[in-house]
């Protein structure tokens, strides 16, 4: 491959070396691992998480390749006009038939912090993405502003996860699955950067109450 001398080699070379060692390590324990996994995937989980490098889905739950179908974006949002997230969701529920969908936020989320601040005019695209979070703030403004400032961001992060789980429940894709099979169950979790632990915030399934205006007919 042609070398681009403007790219520092050492950082990416380290990743390639680590990859080789990782692959060899797995093969030494399980010689057929990649061969078997290459045939098909049957993940039971869809993970919708934040893009933050400190919250890698498989790592924090000690999962192996093939166990989790993953979608990540800034501030783990489920926006019902985002075809990227929706196409991942459709494939996960309609084809892979995942049993659980986890929306995972994290305390100390830079996306939430940015959404609760004045907009940076140099980040026009990111501002549009984060606008939805400002709307969630407005929904819970009274409670959030009654909290001490050091607790406000954490609570907002939890409200965001709850909202995104509800957004999933409001899609026709999820409601169709709920009618046809016993799942998937929707979970909202928050990860603590300070302790590496996940906290359950909300769980919704087909028996959970839902406002009539969000229900699809048939
Ligand atoms: Zn984040």
Task: Provide a short characterization of the protein structure.
The chain is an alpha/beta fold.
What can you tell me about this protein's structure?
With 218 residues, the chain is an alpha/beta fold. The chain has two domains: 1-39, no CATH class; 41-214, Beta-carbonic Anhydrase, Chain A (3-Layer(aba) Sandwich). It is built from nine helices and five strands, in the order H-H-E-H-E-H-E-H-H-H-H-H-E-E. The protein has helices spanning 9-29, 33-39, 57-60, 83-95, 110-115, 124-139, 141-146, 149-169, 172-180, and strands at residues 45-50, 68-73, 100-106, 185-191, 198-204. The longest helix is centred in the first third of the chain and has 21 residues, at 9-29. Residues 50, 52, 75, 106, 109-111 line the site of zinc ion (ZN).
Radius of gyration: 20 Å
The CATH topology assignment of the largest domain is Beta-carbonic Anhydrase, Chain A
Overall structural domain count: 2
Main sheet: which strands, in order across?
2-1-3-4-5
Broad structural category: alpha/beta
* Portion in helices: 40-55%
Give the end-to-end Cα distance, rounded to a whole number of Å: 55 Å
Largest beta-sheet characterization: 5 strands, mixed
Helix/strand layout:
Layout: H1 9-29, H2 33-39, E1 45-50, H3 57-60, E2 68-73, H4 83-95, E3 100-106, H5 110-115, H6 124-139, H7 141-146, H8 149-169, H9 172-180, E4 185-191, E5 198-204
Parallel strand pairs: 1-2, 1-3, 3-4
Antiparallel strand pairs: 4-5
Zinc ion binds at residues 50, 52, 75, 106, 109-111.
